[in-house]
TrEMBL record:
One of its GO terms (molecular function) is glycosyltransferase activity. It comes from the Bacteria. The lineage of its organism: Bacteria, Pseudomonadati, Pseudomonadota, Betaproteobacteria, Burkholderiales. Signal peptide: none annotated. It comes from Ramlibacter tataouinensis. Pfam families: Glycos_transf_1. This is Glycosyl transferase family 1 domain-containing protein. Residues 163-291 form the Glycosyl transferase family domain.
């Protein structure tokens, strides 16, 4: 019997929308907790913030276990440092849920000197694995398992799709309305399609508004001004995740044009496959692993434009003309109905300290070329515990003060963040968010990114010209 411990991840209900990372951690709760999926596992939960505040609790809780699953976002380095400081012997399974994003990059940098045989990394795609190996060569000596828990629990039964008006073609966007998801190009596609067949095509957008340029009221005005109609674009705020499949079934085409630096999987593509909805997607990141060739749109990447991984941003543009041609011709490419990425056996192998279940696959030529063209600076290497330990210790003090506004010095820490931040406008957004939420670590891109300022960790990337 393998004794396993993990934090029971509980998203802040004040967040405007639960992102894929939040959903994945909740799914891990269910897989390893209430559903008790494997007779060889003895699973218990712990309180992650308390581990960092109370070392006696940490020792009592972690000493008996064989494996800790890091179900906490990009904070695995705290577990590694605790294990080292307390002299314990459990294995650690951590994950990396985004690509070029400072929080997870800092985690990997700080974990390096503490890695032991039996530790494992869960990557969400072959693209994620290849990118991680490129950025962190030390991972070549470690097990990297491919696993994402989307639909790994019982997949929901599907109701019949809503009947749509005859002749109307509905395009859909689910998720953040943002520039890095290339949402403006979906509006461009809607306008292009209606230019030749006025009134036939509609766009439904559902999700939180992330970029000012994607404001639904402004988009509605743009569409009305260019088409003379006000019924072609509609918007809904974020919905509960259990309604995603009903929304998918209302669509003729789900559009996934993201060229985001954060992209590693696109879990919504797995959900589209389960829903049986036609998909058109950018040939970026892991999309080629989940979709047939007919569903992929070529990307024109922007070369020679440096960007910091503190921010989400689009890295290129998709081929709108190709998308329009597919839709006009009535072709309906479908996502894979049963991808291998969510096989529970991969998670169990990682917990047991066994080799990966899924064999290595050849990366699609487009993401492979993207990785080869990537250049960066500002990824410091913490090669020894002596280098990493003081950094983690300082970050832990900050974490304990900021998380859930728990520290008596919470306000003074916020003022200090303002002073030291390399990106003051982003820090101001964090401060505003802290006032209206619990200000805890479940808000990915909040505390984790701000602590990169404390560590002086500001990686910068760009793509070399092809």
């Amino acid at each position: 019997m393998i004794r396993v411990s993990l934090h029971c991840f509980d998203s802040d209900p004040a967040l405007p929308q639960r992102d894929g990372v939040n959903l994945a951690h909740a799914e891990i709760n269910r897989l390893l907790g209430s559903q008790q999926p494997h007779p060889g596992l003895d699973v218990g939960f712990h309180d992650f913030p308390r581990l960092l505040r109370d070392e006696d609790y940490a020792a009592r809780t972690l000493a008996p276990v064989d494996c800790v699953v890091c179900n906490v976002g990009p904070h695995a380095h705290y577990y590694h440092a605790l294990r080292d400081r307390l002299g314990l012997g459990f294995r650690i399974v951590r994950d990396i849920k985004t690509a070029l994003w400072s929080g997870y990059l800092l985690q990997e940098s700080l974990c390096e000197p503490f890695l032991r045989p039996g530790d494992a990394l869960l990557a969400t795609s072959e693209y994620s694995r290849a990118l991680s190996l490129q950025l962190f060569p030390h991972l070549r000596a470690e097990f990297i398992h491919l696993f994402e828990p989307v639909l790994a629990a019982d997949a929901p039964a599907l109701a019949a799709g809503q009947r749509r008006p005859e002749g109307v073609v509905t395009l859909g966007h689910l998720g953040r309305l943002s520039e890095d998801k290339n949402f403006p190009q979906k509006v461009d596609l809607l306008l292009e399609l209606n230019r030749t067949e006025p009134g036939r095509y509609r766009l439904l957008a559902v999700g939180a508004v992330h970029s000012p340029s994607c404001d639904p009221a402004a988009v509605a005005r743009q569409v009305q001004a260019q088409t003379g109609r006000d019924d072609l674009f509609s918007y809904q705020p974020p919905v509960e995740h259990d309604r995603v499949f009903a929304l998918m079934r209302q669509l003729d085409y789900f559009l996934f044009f993201s060229t985001s630096n954060l992209e590693v999987l696109g879990r919504v593509l797995v959900e589209a496959g389960h829903a049986g909805t036609a998909v058109l997607a950018s040939r970026h990141a892991a999309a080629p692993e989940l979709l047939p060739e007919a569903a992929l749109l070529e990307v024109r990447y922007r070369a020679g434009e440096p960007f910091y991984s503190h921010f989400d941003r689009p890295l290129g543009e998709v081929d709108i003309e190709a998308a329009a041609a597919v839709i006009r011709e009535g072709r309906r490419p479908l996502a894979l109905p049963a991808p291998a990425i969510n096989r529970r056996a991969s998670l169990f192998a990682a917990i047991a300290g066994e080799p990966p279940v899924l064999p290595r696959r050849t990366l699609d030529s487009a993401p492979a070329a993207f990785i080869e063209r990537l250049r960066w600076e500002g990824l410091p290497r913490y090669a020894t515990p002596a280098q990493a330990t003081p950094v983690i210790a300082e970050l832990q003090q900050w974490f304990n003060s900021l998380n859930a506004k728990a520290g008596p010095d919470f306000d003074s820490r916020l003022h200090e963040l303002e002073r030291i931040s390399r990106f003051p406008e982003r820090t101001q957004r964090f401060l505003a968010s802290a006032r209206r939420t619990r200000c805890d670590f479940t808000n990915l891109g909040g505390i984790d990114i701000e602590l990169c300022n404390v560590a002086g960790y500001h990686p910068c990337f760009e793509l070399a010209r092809a």
